[in-house]
Design brief:
Blueprint: H1 12-20, E1 22-26, H2 33-40, E2 46-53, E3 60-68, H3 71-80, E4 88-89, H4 97-109, E5 121-125, E6 128-132, H5 136-142, E7 150-155, H6 161-168, E8 174-181, E9 188-194, H7 197-207, E10 219-223
GO molecular function: RNA binding
Domain RRM: 21-95
Keywords: Repeat, RNA-binding
């Protein structure tokens, strides 16, 4: 997890307090706040834990917040906790919890029921943490070539397998990353494959033209994978 701060975004502490130290997680409905603290204390110093409950019945909704003292601790928790927790940075407190719960359920927990929406990711700008969405409708208007689950990535610099895998693994569904080397040139070439064409579309949309490392622009195109691209 990389966290950047704009100079125009106010004091560093204000930004930490509002957006970078609190994470939102999915938990078993049997968890108590003490259970939640026990599971996440290994990643850093916890300021508080809270479980979201049904206002009428008082039963847990299976969702909770964990607030750390440092942004690095929250980032570590998101990176290293079990994927079943579906941990993400929480929205600022000035956004209603009901609205955030709805976004979380819609985009993180039930992707198979939302065929028109791809997963969302957070970026920090001068307004703070902003979710970025990419819908299939928008993606389709940009793509004029046959799509597939497989991508070709070309760079003027050679790739490091682990680093390229980590970059493309930011998009869910990565199946493999095969870095190939040309002994006659110093350029980089790799084949990336995802479990679905939707993930490949999103990866191409986000990473074609991306500078990695800075100053080195990636070229990402679709490769034939043997499937009917019309699907």
């Amino acid at each position: 997890v990389f966290i950047a701060q704009s100079r125009a975004s106010g004091s560093h502490r204000d930004l930490e307090d509002e957006e970078l130290t609190r994470i939102f997680v999915m938990i078993p409905k049997t968890y108590t706040e003490e259970d939640l603290r026990e599971k996440f204390k290994m990643y850093g110093d916890i300021e508080y834990c809270s479980i979201i409950k049904n206002k009428t019945t008082g039963e847990s909704k299976g969702l909770g917040y964990v607030r750390y003292l440092k942004p690095s601790q929250a980032a570590r928790a998101i990176e290293e906790c079990d994927r079943s927790y579906r941990a993400i940075l929480a929205e600022p407190k000035n956004k209603s919890s009901e609205s955030f719960e709805h976004d979380y359920y819609s985009n993180t927990m039930r992707p198979e029921l939302r065929g028109n929406t791809l997963p969302f990711y957070y970026f920090v700008d001068s307004r703070g943490m902003q979710p970025e969405f990419c819908s299939f409708e928008k993606a389709e208007t940009r793509i004029q070539e046959p799509v597939s689950k497989r991508l070709s990535v070309v760079s003027r610099l050679p790739f490091i397998q682990e680093q390229l895998f980590a970059l493309f693994d930011l998009v869910p569904g990565l199946e493999y990353c095969d870095v190939q080397r040309d002994p006659h040139t110093n350029s980089g070439y790799a084949v990336i494959q995802y479990s679905t064409a939707a993930s490949a579309i999103y990866a191409k949309y986000k990473l074609h033209g991306f500078e990695y490392p800075p100053g080195n622009r990636l070229t990402v195109i679709f490769l034939e994978d043997g499937n009917d691209s019309s699907e």
